[in-house]
Design a protein that fits this description.
Length: about 190
Amino acid sequence: MIPDWNIAGILPPIRPGEAGHGTDRSPYVVSLRRVVERFATSSQRIDILQGLLDYRHELHAAGIVSGFQWLDGSFAEQTELLESREPNDIDVVTFFCLPPGMDQRLLAQNHEDLFRPDRTKSKFRVDAYPCVLGQPTEGRHVKQIAYWYSMWSHRRNGVWKGFVQADLAPGEDNEAAKALDSIRQEGGRP
């Protein structure tokens, strides 16, 4: 489960009631359907979630089906309360295994629109960043992962916060899409 926003309008970095050294903490590993059910609270958020599903569909079509995604940004915060505005997009880091027979250069060349944040943002409302798994870990990889974790563990004002993680496998997407359609038909959740 994704914890409720706390009094600061953010996901807590550690589940309330959990010991500080406990493992029930951010990133909260949840199903894609739970992400939809939790955050589809307005037409703007529904549109952003549809963009996320469309982006994932394109990743799957490119053969990227194994890994996970960290989901965050103002989308994972209660920006309506904190900043009197709706979120504009969702921030996503996709940690993925390369498709069989494909190297990183060829994949980026064949699917450039999936690996350029300016393009994913305009096409899908997803501020997307790739991170390849399954290769030898080098210092630059550790630095990149530490960067994402440190950036996403805090708001710009320095307050600690949490974020969520969803599996990249396509099996969850149909269920999430059905849940989103149902919520859309209800007019969004308050």
